Amino acid sequence: MRLSMDLELQDVPGQLLLAMQPLSDNKANIISVVHHRDRKTPRGMIPVRFIVEMDRSRIEAVKARLKESGISVVRAGEDRFIESVSVVLVGHVLDSDLGDTINRIDSTGFAEVMDLSLTMPGVSEHSSAYLKIRATGKAEIHKALTILRNVGEEKKLLVIEPIEMEAV
Amino acid sequence: MRDVKVSLVGFGIVGHGVVDVLSRKRELLREMGLNLRLVSVTDHTGTVTSEDGVDAKKILGERTLANVATSSMKGKEAIDAIDSDLMIEVTPTNIVHGQPGLGHMEAALASGKHVVTSNKGPLVVSYGRLKKLAEENGVMLKFEATVGGTMPLISLVERTLVGNAILGVRGIFNGTCNYILTRMAEEGIPYAHALSEAQDMGIAEADPSYDVEGVDTAGKVVILANSLFDMNIKYSDVDVTGITGVTPEALALAKKRGYAIKLIGDVPALTVRPTLVPLDSPLAVAGTLNSAAIYTDLSGTITVSGLGAGSIETASAILTDITSIYRTKRIDAIF
């Protein structure tokens, strides 16, 4: 699971290393570290944002260790939706329970529908919908697309997915 | 000078193009050291033969060979009887049983003739068997014209990109579908209107299902999977969705967000589906054009585009294949 963590470090040497040790000890794979030296807080602390790949169950242990080291944890563990994808649906999008279709994505916890436009040319005609889905990572995007593909098959909707721009 | 006796089987739109191009390029090819002599042309009505080369002017005005045939031989009978080094097979395609092209190719390969073709059917139905037959008889089977028409794809991968691992190929392989989707997006017209416009222009057949249901594209996916990826798959292994369900509203919604909707064939995923393609992608070509992105380990992604159909264009790809057979030992060989 990909997680983000906002910390505040004191402006003294060795603080970043101190913050990384608990992550490393808990087998977190660090995806990115953004160190905002130029955006000090009023208390003179330096905000740092980590994005890590780690087991969610270890997050509390990491937080406790960080606090022991005197590092303040502003926010941790909330999923950040960092990937997004566009999808177009064609068929009886509304009549086949659009709310349910969206809920199948939203209920995963790792993906959500963040944008929706619907065009309905006539009552009995097929409607078309544009959906933007965001998720916590690339793998989660693929899972969300698979769910949507299955929903499409079930509800007889044409699911038009974006092309993969890289070889898979 | 390399003297090559060529026999042509099939005298439809592509067959006419082949006769025309071989005649037009005869001198150029001779300058390259290749003397191509079209010793016979065969269609479902009979055969025209000439030891010195069939005169293009005499037959190009004819729709079939019925009035000009010098012999009543047809199909396999003609292939067996006529002495030639290479057969060009351009009869109508059938991707269910591959006939009559499959029988023609088997007969030619078994008797030691190289085969160059634009006919997808036999390759979709039994690529492995034909390839083996060619190897056993020490001849070549070339089929650049079956995928993407004149757009270089198979020869590009096999020759120019040699040494690269090919990770995948995705692209637009049907000009009829691409034309219909392009017109729907441009004019906001429904599928049925764009289809009838395409039919009026001769871009779509009276029975368009072969193109618009994705059958043709899937056939090309099978050929690419078997020839470039050694996958040994059948038509039924491809997951196919055509373009008949695409609405002008879907195209408009996609366009607003920076996407075109294109019918994309994907190897090795083995899918044919309407797909969102970024408008700024080189794959997002318009009209009847085809395009293909080739994903490689060394060269990154290479994208090509070109005309996917047409009489002269297809004949051009056939000519490329013919010259490549004889170039093997002349220009590209490693000594």
Topology summary:
The complex is a heterodimer of chains A (168) and B (335).
Chain A (H helix, E strand, L loop, with lengths): L1 E8 L5 H11 L3 E7 L10 E8 L5 H10 L3 E5 L6 E9 L6 H9 L4 E9 L7 E9 L2 H18 L2 E3 L8
Antiparallel strand pairs in A: 1-3, 1-4, 2-3, 5-7, 5-8, 6-7
Chain B lengths: L1 E8 L3 H12 L1 H7 L1 E10 L2 E4 L6 H4 L15 H7 L4 E4 L11 H10 L3 E4 L2 H17 L4 E2 L11 H7 L5 E7 L2 H13 L3 H10 L8 H4 L2 H14 L10 E2 L7 H9 L2 E9 L3 E8 L10 E8 L4 E7 L3 H17 L8
Parallel strand pairs in B: 1-2, 1-4, 4-5, 5-6, 8-10
Antiparallel strand pairs in B: 2-3, 7-9, 7-11, 9-10, 11-12
Helix pairs in contact in B: 1-13, 4-5, 5-6, 6-11, 8-9
Question: Can you give a write-up of this model?
Answer:
The complex is a heterodimer of chains A (168) and B (335). The two termini of chain A are 21 Å apart. In chain A, helix 1 (15-25) packs antiparallel against helix 2. Helices cover 29% and strands 35% of the residues of chain A. Chain A has four helices and eight strands. Chain B is of the alpha/beta class and 335 residues long. Helices cover 39% and strands 22% of the residues of chain B. Chain B has helices at 13-24, 26-32, 56-59, 75-81, 101-110, 120-136, 154-160, 175-187, 191-200, 209-212, 215-228, 248-256, 311-327; strands at 2-9, 34-43, 46-49, 86-89, 114-117, 141-142, 166-172, 239-240, 259-267, 271-278, 289-296, 301-307. The longest helix of chain B is centred in the middle third of the chain and has 17 residues, at 120-136. Chain B is globular, with a radius of gyration of 20 Å. Chain B starts with a strand and ends in an 8-residue tail after the last helix. The interface between A and B is medium-sized, with 24 and 29 residues.
Number of strands of chain A: 8
Major sheet attributes of chain B: 6 strands, mixed
Q: Topology as H/E string of chain A?
A: EHEEHEEHEEHE
Strand runs of chain B, count: 12
* Approximate strand percentage of chain B: 15-25%
The SS-based structural class of chain A is alpha+beta
Number of helical segments with 4 or more residues of chain A: 4
Instruction: Write down the Rg of chain A.
Output: 21 Å
Oligomer: heterodimer
Low-confidence stretches of chain B: none
What is the first-to-last residue Cα distance of chain A? 21 Å
Biggest sheet strand line-up of chain A: 2-3-1-4
Biggest protein-protein interface? Answer: A-B, 24 and 29 residues
- The share of residues in helices of chain A is 25-40%
Tell me about the biggest sheet of chain A? Answer: 4 strands, antiparallel
Helix content of chain B: 25-40%
